[in-house]
Amino acid sequence: MKVRSWLAGLAAGAVALTLASPSLASSAPVTSVANGPEIRQLDTPKGGGAGVVAKRDELGRAHSIRPATPLKAPAAVGAKAARSATSKPDALAVAKAQVDAVAPYFGARPADLVASSSALSEYGSQTRFQQTIDGVPVYGGQIVTNLDKSGALESANGEVTLATYGAFPAAGQVDAAKAKASEAAVKAVAERAKLDAGKLTAKLDGPRWFDLGLMTRTPGSAAIPVYLFEVTGPGDVRWQAMVHASAGQALLAWSLNENLNRVVCDANHTVIQTGAEDVRCGTVFPSARADGEAPSAIQDVNQVYEYFGDTSDTYASLGTDLTELIGADYGDGKGKALRGTVRICVDGGCPYANAFWNGEQMAFGEGVSTDDVTGHELTHGVTQHTSGLAYLWEAGAINESLSDIMGEFVDLTNGSADDTAANRWQIGEGSSLGVIRSMSDPTKFGDPDRMRSANWFDDEFFQDNGGVHFNSGVGNKAAYLIADGGAFNGQKMLGIGLARSEVLWHETQKVLTTGADYGDLAEGLRATCAKLAKKKKSGMTKADCAQVELAIKATEMDFEPAVGKPAQAPVCDTAGAKAKNLFKDSFVEYPDGKVVRDAGWVLGKAEGLDGSLVDTSYSLDGDDSMLGVVTAPDTSISLQTANGTKIKNPKTYLRFTHAYNFYNVFIIFGVRTGTSTLEYSDNGGATWKDTADLKWVNGPTVDPNFTDEPAAWHGNSGGWETSRLDLTDFQGKQLKFRWTEHGKDFADLLPANWWLDNAAVYTCSK
Q1: Over the Cα atoms of the chain, what is R_g?
Q2: N or C end of the chain: smaller count of CB under 10 Å?
Q3: Can you tell me whether residue 468 is helix, strand or coil?
Q4: CA-CA distance, 189 to 288, in Å (whole number)?
């Protein structure tokens, strides 16, 4: 995710705070040892793992363990492994031993991994382990193990945080901190959604450690202490908000509206105020039709009743009791049931043109109910109770896609009259909304059909929770290709049919974690297909898995989005020109005689300085990089060349690769952590001047949110980018250079990180 300027052009309702910031020094910066919260390193990802680790990220963390041959259970749990196919306690004990063995590849401490759920199936057992730090769960920090019936590890998927930054309030301050955080959560949602704060209610879901790097492709972040709230309000308002636990600063808020025993109720156009308890079917509204009862006179009631049955049948065929998994018991004598309330209205909207899962039951506007829409929304409930995919960024896009996929499977297999060739893989046909998405061709509605599509929605201003609806097209296209086959993006797929596709996607859902991205989905599909191919009952074959692999390749799941990728500056401008280095440093060791540094700069992986995040840094070329970390506002740290370089010829350039984390997504609430600049000296370091006004390619720019400040690099780079400065005008002079990182207002809440690699001064000539 590329983020350059979060506040400029923000969607209506977003918060833009006015922040007072120090001006940038034109002479020597204020140098300070970082004195903000302590960065606590948790563990270091273990290298190696050939034949075992299938996927790593930039930080060296494993995301997928897929051994060529399942790893036998450790001898210490050998007896329990023999019983793991039929005994959940034994399966859990074996899974714990297995995850402890592979945890180092993920960078996890075994003691931090706590089993949160475990299930037996005809294929073996699955256990989901939650990362906890000091007893507090890490949002998105999970590892899921898959064991065969002998207790051997077939796969493990997930990721964990590698460091923490800051701390939760002390015992005597907790109540006050939670009260302040609750107010901040309500205010944040009110301002973002343009709602009356007095009509909103915040319910604490609990403390969490939150590492943005688990949810996005942002590297080098650390887990910070937050309180997670669910905020509800008039109509279908249902949000979540994260507030920094010790500072009371709202950091992130997002909408949760995903826009067999059955009980269906009729609201009869009643205006719903909260979309929570006041929409309950069986208490607020009486049952209009329950399981086994005669049809209602209301068409919407009967349709939802039938669609609940269709969806339940689909999941039952896959071995999941939908009522048991997501049903609700409101004490009305109907027991635990799939519940839905139809013909609701909201303030300012009647009929309500949508449907939603509110965390415990369904709600429909009049005429919205269709088989695929019902299957879609109920699958959000399945996701809530299995993978728990966050409704944010790529995880949210996969969440939406899984609902589309399972909803369409319901539609395509229930024998409804609208199952025509024209409607195949269309979402919403027959509803009052009409077709809203095409799974066979997502581009018809402007959605991407592959990761590097120009239609990928970068969602700079967080208008769609990071692109959850738009970017679901990638998963949708993959599902279509896997089931029906076809030619796409240079690949030709035969298709494995609906029956095997249903099993594949349902089982894959179970191995995903809260912050999974499309690369994780690809690994989940591979691991799941390989597992199913070993079980004759599934009908899956190795040949089928080859077709799944082609669909993954066609939709480019293993690639990062092309839209919003970091900018790159060319080495030379003339084709065929050769670069001759006058100075070069790829930061392999320190000291190297080439650069000198202030405290706060460390050589990423080569040094073991406390609080340096050394083991969570990353490098473009695989050897190392220099990392600067600022943890306090109004401080600066510098890295400079030790000696000057004589500029003799035209077409002489300074070029370097860098990555930075200064805004994160939290800029929607005015939270920024730092900026960075490059200065030069032509008098041996006696004085320094900013380079911002010189001839740059991808150089510093003025932040449109802080126009009174000099140009700088700001926001998030989203990965490695390159910048190039033209030094032609300095012919005859000897120049030194200084990279300076400046801590801004919220560096004590989130560390400001700047990585540098492969810096060079060179000439271009043929």
Answers
A1: 27
A2: C
A3: coil
A4: 34
Active site residue ranges: 377, 469
Q: Is a pLDDT exceeding 60 seen at residue 248?
A: yes
pLDDT band at 98 (very low <50, low <70, confident <90, very high): very high
Question: Beta 338-342 vs 362-364: how paired, if at all?
Answer: parallel
Give the C-alpha separation, 185 to 204, whole Å. 10
- Give me the long-range contacts of 325-331 (CB less than 8 A, separation at least 24): 325/381, 325/382, 325/385, 326/378, 326/381, 326/382, 326/384, 326/385, 327/261, 328/360, 328/361, 330/280, 330/281, 330/282, 330/283, 331/283
Confidence of residue 24 (pLDDT cuts 50, 70, 90): very low
Q: Is the peptide bond before 448 cis (omega within 30 degrees of 0)?
A: no
In percent, the amount of the chain with pLDDT more than 70 equals: 90
How many CB atoms within 10 Å of residue 540? Answer: 25
* Measured distance CA(655)–CA(635) in Å, rounded: 26
- Judged against a pLDDT cut of 60, whether residue 17 lies above it is answered with no
Decide: 391 and 348 in contact? Cβ < 8 Å. no
Rounded to two decimals, the pTM is: 0.82
Measure Cα distances from 343 to 279, 292, 304, 654 in Å: 11, 22, 11, 65
Kindly write down the DSSP assignment for every residue of 470-512, as one continuous string.
Answer: GGGHHHHHHHHHHHH-EEETTEEE----HHHHHHHHHHHHHH-
Q: What is the pLDDT of residue 424?
A: 92
The CA-to-CA distance between both ends of the chain, in Å, stands at 37
Cα–Cα distance, 148 to 124 (Å, whole number): 4
DSSP letters, 164-217, are EES-PPPGGGHHHHHHHHHHHHHHHHHHHHT--GGG-EEEEEEEEEE-GGGTSS
Q: In terms of Cα–Cα distance, which of 496, 486, 375, 372 is closest to 424?
A: 372
DSSP 395: H
Q: How many CB atoms lie within 10 A of CB 420?
A: 10
The answer on pLDDT for 608 being more than 50 is no
Please answer whether residues 681 and 689 qualify as being in contact, where contact means their C-beta atoms are separated by less than 8 angstroms.
Answer: yes
Q: Annotate 610-654 with DSSP letters as a single string.
A: TTS-GGG---SSSS--EEEEE-STT-EEEEEESS-EE--SSSEEE
